[in-house]
Design goal:
With about 400 residues, the chain is of the alpha/beta class. The protein is about 30% helix and about 15% strand.
């Protein structure tokens, strides 16, 4: 059995460990019916997401999950088709949870809670929608005659290894179903809880293509605590990259997002790149911050309270819309490319868009470059990025 993952910090309390799966974790919870307003979200194909809204229940977390609420729903469908107009490098996704306890201030998925009639601030962080029938639905949908075995990306909206996964084990179950069906898949996460499922991932990799990416935006502890307080420490995520690659699971890193004035210093980027090259990351990809409607107002309000000195910088960077100027993205890509080479890595074919078929999963295309990182010894951490997507 894999050792327990590192403590997962709560954004509103001390670090806690995921509950022991052998213990009845639901004991003492309060279950009450709840009504939510369901509207079409970007990763869902129609408004009728759940067969009976009256069946949804609100479970108040206790113990390690105190301060959280879990909204149990039964989904009609769990494998979601990405809209044809999307620039994402994948066509299908699975998201077993909505909302995310990682509490990343910049999270682009926050507006999905507005679709439910919930807030995009604290509600998004503490009121987690749990598709309790996700494993059963994945099994059924993979067996459907119409399913063609396309690659599936997980972690494209909210993190499949957020704190709720320590309680519900839905991601583990979904991995089992994808493995049984020999269906290729990829996972993007910020959590060391993924190490709990290393044996399952190794078993799946013997049957199909499996790709992991860890999101590590900075190793600066002060910036980490300020911007993503519910995530495991970034140095522990670097160690997870090492352990996954050593275990035979190709794992890359997204330096994401790079935050203007907070984590975009060359010394900060160098620290992340060097650590990840040393950990054997098969790719290192920088992603600049983007602020979509809703998230922009949330972040600007947060900056006004936490870092008012940065408000003018962000107003300037995002005065024309959700994305920063392309020349800033090109500069970031060039900087990271240079840092990869200095750390003993090798840039992979120069700049390319994340929408390319072999780009990592889970982040919107903003024109930055992906790099294959090679171990300082010169030995490739993996033969190449898996051409999964």
């Amino acid at each position: 059995m894999a050792p327990d993952p590192d403590p997962v910090p709560s954004p509103r309390g001390p670090a806690t460990r995921p509950a022991d799966p052998r213990v009845d974790r639901d004991a003492g919870e309060i279950a009450t019916p709840v009504a939510l307003r369901w509207r079409r979200a970007e990763d869902e194909q129609d408004g009728a997401l759940f067969p009976d809204e009256r069946a949804m229940e609100r479970h108040v977390g206790t113990g390690a999950y105190r301060g959280m609420e879990f909204l149990h729903v039964n989904a009609r469908s769990v494998i979601n088709a990405v809209p044809a107009a999307s620039s994402m490098p994948f066509r299908y996704t699975i998201n077993a949870y909505r909302g995310c306890s990682h509490a990343c201030v910049y999270c682009f998925a926050r507006p999905t809670h507005d679709y439910l009639g919930l807030g995009i601030g604290e509600d998004f962080e503490t009121k987690i929608v749990v598709k309790v029938n996700a494993v059963e639905r994945v099994r059924a949908e993979l067996r459907a005659p119409s399913w063609r075995g396309d690659p599936i990306a997980m972690g494209t909206n909210t993190d499949p290894y957020q704190r709720a996964e320590g309680k519900y084990h839905l991601t583990r179950g979904i991995i089992g179903e994808l493995s049984a069906a020999r269906n290729p898949f990829s996972i993007l996460t910020k959590s060391t809880l993924v190490l709990r499922d290393l044996p399952q991932l190794v078993a799946a990799a013997e049957r199909t293509s499996v790709r992991l990416d860890l999101s590590i935006g900075t190793l600066d502890r002060e910036v980490w605590r300020l911007t993503e307080p519910g995530t495991p420490p970034p140095d522990k995520r670097v160690e997870a990259v090492r352990r996954l690659n050593e275990g035979g699971i190709p794992c890359g890193v997204l330096i994401a997002p790079v935050l203007p004035g907070l984590s975009d210093g060359e010394a900060q980027l160098r620290q992340v790149v060097s650590a990840c090259v040393d950990a054997g990351a098969v790719s290192i990809t920088p992603i600049g911050l983007h602020l979509r409607p809703g998230v922009r107002d949330h972040v600007m309000g947060w900056l006004a309270e936490q870092r008012p000195d940065l408000v003018p910088l962000y107003q300037g960077r995002f005065r024309r819309g959700s994305y920063q100027a392309k020349d800033l993205g090109a500069r970031l890509a060039a900087t990271v490319s240079s840092l990869v080479r200095q750390a003993g890595g090798e840039a992979a074919g120069g700049p390319r868009r994340l929408g390319a078929v072999d780009g990592p999963a889970g982040e919107p295309d903003d024109g930055l470059a992906a790099h294959v990182a090679r171990h300082p010894s010169g030995r490739s951490a993996a033969a190449e990025q898996l051409r999964l997507l």
